[in-house]
Each structure stands twice: as structure tokens, then as C-alpha cells.
Amino acid sequence: MAGNREFNYRRLHSLLGVIPVGLFLIQHLVVNHFATGGEESFNKAAHFMESLPFRYLLETFVIFLPLLFHAVYGLYIAFTAKNNTSNYGYFRNWMFLLQRISGVITLIFITWHVWETRVAAAFGTEVNFQMMENILASPFMLVFYIVGVISTIFHFANGLWSFLVSWGITVTPRSQLIATYVTIGIFVALSVVGLRSIFAFV
């Protein structure tokens, strides 16, 4: 019974990491990428997102609650997992270990990012191009954001591979190999989008 419960929790954890949290990540990266078009372009995109109807309900039930479950259960997995990279240096074992490490880094980064932006906005600070420009003017914060964004994207892309296996979508070695190449491509493409967005504010 406990085994079935844990199996279902892991599947739910995997599902929420892709839908809706992963989809929100992609949407967030796309909105931020408007910064490459200049200050006005980014501010328009950010204002559009802030003016969505039922925004607070959407943020609570589609983003924050699923993210909270994914983060809390993900920490449980990270600190109870038996990593065996020292004995077996296979690619997937390393991806398993990096998934756990990137999950912890991602949680730290997202917590700080939400504090700097969403919480600040709740107290009346406007989330705009200038805010991000001021944050990233610090060399430390620039490096922190680069590491955080890359870690978050890796965690999503590699987690997508696990999701496909967990949900029985890729069951054969060939399909899993194809999924590996596809998820690596997703990681590279989203990383380009994320880094271009960061440097657009610098």
C-alpha cells in the first residue's frame, strides 16, 4: 500500500513538473525574451501578463501550489535517493544525480526570484525592465541568475525525459534514446532564450 502511494506521488510529482510548472517556465522565458526587443517591448509583455483576468487565482492554483508540491516532494526524493555514480558512470546515472542537484539549485533560485519580483510587486514595486536591469547590474546577481536559469532549464528538460518514462510514453531503448536527443535539444534551445533574455537587461 505504501509502495503504491509513493509510486503515485512520484508520478504526480513528475506530471506537475511538466504540466503546469514546465509550461509556465516556457511561457515565462518567452515573455522575458521580449527584453531583447528593448525596454518598451518587455514592459508591454510584462504588463499584459499582469493584467490577465483571474491572475491571482491562476498564479495560486496553476503555478504556486503545484510548484510547492513539486518542490517539497522533490527535496524528499533528492535527500533519500541512492546515487551510484561512483560505482556506475553511465550517462543516465549522472543525469539522475544532476537532476537532484539542479532541483535544489532551482528551488533556491526560484525562491529568491519570487521574493525579488512577485513579493516586491505585492508591496507596490513595479515589475519592469528597469527592475531587472537594476538587479542584474550586480556581477554577483548576474552570475546567480545565469546559474539559476540554466539549472532550472536543465531540471525541466531532464525531468521531461523522466516524465516520458514514468508515464509509459517511452518504453523501448530506442524511444528513450530519441527522447534523450529531443530533451537535450529543448535544453539548448531554452538556454539560448534564457541567456539572451538575461543579457538583454545588462
How many β-strand runs?
0
Work out the strand percent.
under 5%
Q: How many distinct domains?
A: 1
Rg over alpha carbons = 18 Å
- Structural class estimated from helices and strands: mainly alpha
| SSE ordering | HHHHHHHH
CATH architect. name: Up-down Bundle
The pLDDT mean sits at 91
Measured as a percent range, the helix fraction is over 70%
In terms of quaternary structure, the protein is: single chain
> Alpha-carbon distance between the termini?
53 Å
* CATH-level-4 superfamily name: Fumarate reductase/succinate dehydrogenase, transmembrane subunit
**Regarding CATH, which class?**
Mainly Alpha
Number of helical segments with 4 or more residues? 8
Q: Segments where pLDDT lies below 50 for 5+ residues?
A: none
* Overall geometry: globular
Examine the coordinates and then state which fold CATH places here, giving the name of the CATH topology.
3 helical TM bundles of succinate and fumarate reductases
Describe the main β-sheet briefly: none
Q: Would you kindly provide a written description of the structure presented here, covering whatever features stand out?
A:
- With 202 residues, the chain is mostly helical.
- The chain has a single domain, classed as Up-down Bundle (3 helical TM bundles of succinate and fumarate reductases).
- It has eight helices and no strands.
- Helix 2 packs parallel to helix 8 (173-200), helix 4 (55-80) packs antiparallel against helix 5 (91-122) and helix 7 (139-166) runs antiparallel to helix 8.
- The longest helix is centred in the middle third of the chain and has 32 residues, at 91-122.
- It starts with a helix and ends with a helix.
